[in-house]
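User: Could you check the structure of this?
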Amino acid sequence: MIDACSQESRPLLSIDDALGRIKTAVNPVNGTEKAALKNALGRVLAESVYSPINIPHDRNAAMDGYAFASRDMADGQAFTLALAGTSWAGRPFQGRLQAGQCVRIFTGAVVPEQADSVIMQEHVQVQEQTVHFPADTRALQNVRKIGEDVKQGECLIAQPKKLTAVDLGLLASAGIDEVTVKRQLKIAHFSTGDELTSLGRPLEPGKIYDSNRAMLGGLLSDPGYSVVDLGVIPDNKQLLEDRFIEASLSYDVIITTGGASVGEADYVKEILQSCGEVNFWKIAIKPGKPLAFGKIGQCHFFGLPGNPVAVVVTFQQIVAPALRQLSGAPSAKPLRFTATCTSALKKSPGRQEYQRGILSQDENGEFFVASAGQQGSHILSSMSQSGCYIVLPEACKGVQAGDRVTVEPFSLLI
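Assistant: Sure, the predicted structure tokens are below.
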């Protein structure tokens, strides 16, 4: 489809086609390393982990109460048992439970070998050393079996999972304090443009502060990435080419912002063609059409637009999936669902558009989304105030208030 607002002579590459090309061109990095469990959050597991023990390791109580043997039950009648002692979490009952006896037990405590049932403490009456059980006492309840969660030798976590906090807890429950993970992905990023001023310096006429490096630093904050900020490079073709080649020898990925458009001082595509290869340049996405993807030697290259909102959108929709694949993590898609749009939205057909929205949910669980304000690719304030993208497909010609639209939330909280 031709972009109605574009002067392109041929249809732009769709975002799906761009992602398909990246998927074909990118292979996970080689190399692994050992990581202590306390440092493994967010790392990509390189070797599957098998449990050296049963979890639970012992039969234990699922609640506070009294452990007893079902053989002592009285065929549906109330019955009494003698209290033989207590089993605490971490301090099991010492001795052998005899017929006609029970033990006081706490959640997580080992159930004596001779017992097979636990009754909640609220369901019994205790008089000194005698425990009175009701007629409706149920047998074989509230006892966690050995290996009920994970059996010894069973796979705890299969590679190549990106480890979560829960995964660390599961590994710790098996006594595992070290795992083998994929090596960190080495990433360099920098901004290009004569107009950019680094933070901490006075702003001269015609200059702007460089917001893109600060954003990319945050977007690239991931335990699986080793990230270096190479600063700002002016619009000097030879200097840019030298820096591209130099960085390509030390990093897996180079990410630049600015210089990917069609102005006289926009050299990214030209330099990439001369010292490497261009896989694609320009895609049917708004904001973010002037995006370059290629390679310099063995280093993958992403040339993002200069406008800050376009940087965020293209990073999240294009670069982030590529980095995930490069790091060896399994593929994942962003959460999307439909909501009722309460604002009229302008759009011309031809590009898939990511408009900034404010997402809400009413007391009935229905989702609603409103425009976050001005949608220009240079307007970062509305991006900061928004909580989701309103994803409008290429063919969409606009949205009326009350229409259903697809939304992509930035987080699980609204």
